[in-house]
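Annotated sample (chain length 74).
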Amino acid sequence: MLEVLGYCVTAKSKVEILQHISLSKQSKNFHQYLEPMISKGLIERTQPDKLTSKHQKYFTTVKVKYLLISHNNV
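Output written by the structure step:
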């Protein structure tokens, strides 16, 4: 999970994220890996009102970015 959060500091597409963690772009991988992070507020959508947009990207929330920075400074 930390690998995905660190990778999504800048907005990435679903395919980019799944490829980064060596998974195929099948919807089951999205549901298993990304949706739980979205529901927990760890990552957000760039277009929250258009969930199925082909231009949808995902990014790490500001709160999580600060946690990642403080974790790297310890």
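Annotation: The chain has a mean pLDDT of 92.
Annotation: DSSP finds four helices and two strands in the chain.
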